[in-house]
Amino acid sequence: MKNILKTFGLLLLSGTAFVACDDYLDRQPDEQLTPDQIFLKASTTEQYLTNVYAYQPNYSDPSGQTLPWAPCADESSIAYTGRSYTQINYDTWDPSINLQRSYTYNNIYKGIREASYFMQHVYECPEIGDTDKGYMYNEARFLRAYYYSLLMSTFGPVFILGDEPTDYEQEDLNERERDSWEKCVDYVTTELYEASKGLPQEWASAKYGRATKGAALAIRSRVYLYSARKLFNGNDLYKGVIDKYGNPLFPTVYDEKKWETAAQAAKDVIDMNIYGLVGADGTDPYGSLHDLYTTVGPVNSVTEMIFSRIVSAYNWGIAATPRMARSRAYGSFGPTQKLVDAFAMANGRYPITGYTNGDQTQPIIDPESGYSETGFSTFTHPIFGDQLANTFMMYQNREPRFYINVLWSGCVWHSGNVNKGVVQLYTGGNSGYAATQQNYPATGYLAGKFIDHTKDTSTAGDSTSTDVWDFIDWPIIRYAEILLNYVEALNEYDPGNPDILTYLNMVRKRAGVPDIEKVYPEAVGNQKQMRELIRRERMVELCYENHRYFDIRTWMIAETEHGDVYGMNIDATNHNANSAFWKRTLSTRDSGLSANGHRKFSPRGYLFPISQEEMDRTNCTQNYGW
């Protein structure tokens, strides 16, 4: 099975170019291909569908080269210089820059175009049976709707091309206008629902990773949830955004019914009864979470990955592996202090409830949590069993997800059967800042998720190597998200519904955290308090998976959350007990900057601007503030 999955994964590695064997699949603008060329053979028809899949963005690369979601979320920071995500974090961009246009707009519309072309012609293939052609048709239909959902998350209302042959790249589109948000939602959710009817519940292992009924319903759940949230549910900011024909592009009135629709969409996935949480009984949260993030396919016959993309572990691996561990490791992607603060204690309480005047150097500590930022002691790492001398109390007695996701200075790096030694993230340390280096974490932490410490990272090859980096099953949407979607939506229109506790506690139990009502009994039925607890659970459970960027924007809390970046003081020259390193410090090298960590956000940043190139071509309505 492993070799089969690797083969399919390789076909999906490219998000911008065709990977088919026949040259005539490379469609050129002046060389339209005829259906009898492409769809005469089963092999080239299947290859064409694989190419439609290949337009999926590469979410597994946190470096910001292709997508800005990871480095522009308040949960993470990168020290790389010269990357365009810096302009988002510090609000210095404008529509003329075409920021990230290829991977957030152009390539997505190309994928939509190719999906439609495939749908129009797949039934012409004489070598494929009707049942399989039906599956393939609905795979392309799913992908087309999924690609639209990605555009909508980034830009809000977009151009819905439907089944018409219009190529979005044509020059004369002056009569076109972006479709309203409600029309986009109706179209995409309908397409996903209809596609779900023609997709299997699961595939044989050789086709693992392809669209299923559950994948279609799960993406539909996410679209409905985003649509119910404040950004797209009658917020005042967008009431004046009127298209060139006088119609509002966004809903102008809040509709509570949207939350009920979102809850039912998530419940539709739950009621399929084919997905679960890996290690749901919570008896071995460390092993379960490790296996979930490093195994391709179901784990112990449990399918948590509803839709995922099999990718090389290389991009994530080099970004999160400390420099000392191997000859080619960039070790620059890590959590912010805010994310470190977000994880619960072992008793299930969240230690940091806020910050005095928003200053992260002054955390407000819950005295019932047992948390302390005073002192150091020897600590046994709960995953590796290392005896870590002089461990800051901040990192002790935290919940299991903390130790899966966060690596702090002083931890031992494990690489297969080899102990690589202590990771040093201070200035002059083996993985810390140096004047000639940008391969260090700006916050003094590294991300641990998706790292398989059973493999020897020191012998990994280049980006084409499949020996050590192997493959990971990158989650596009997994069952834990569906459960969190469900409880969030329920709480907004029916805060007393017992399902909120049932399904929220499923996520906590797998993570080895006590039930929410045992820790916060006062939150039961309290919509406001439960909302904050659900959001906190979402932040820690889904961290690094490209959710946080969109969550803080669709909740419309980015003006307070997308702020200053803090971490440990990486300018210190050692991490001994009581060193200056262990001080909450503004990260002056966030995004590779030399003297700044004050990220900026203005309300225009809730959505990307329509690029000036597109504005010139279509004369469509621009997003608010641009």
TrEMBL record:
The keyword Signal applies. Its main location: membrane. Residues 325-626 form the RagB/SusD domain. It is found in: Cell outer membrane. Keywords: Cell outer membrane, Membrane, Signal. The keyword Nucleotidyltransferase does not apply. One of its GO terms (cellular component) is cell outer membrane. PROSITE patterns: PROKAR_LIPOPROTEIN (PS51257). Residues 23-225 form the SusD-like N-terminal domain. Residues 1-19 form the signal peptide. Belongs to the SusD family. This is Starch-binding protein.
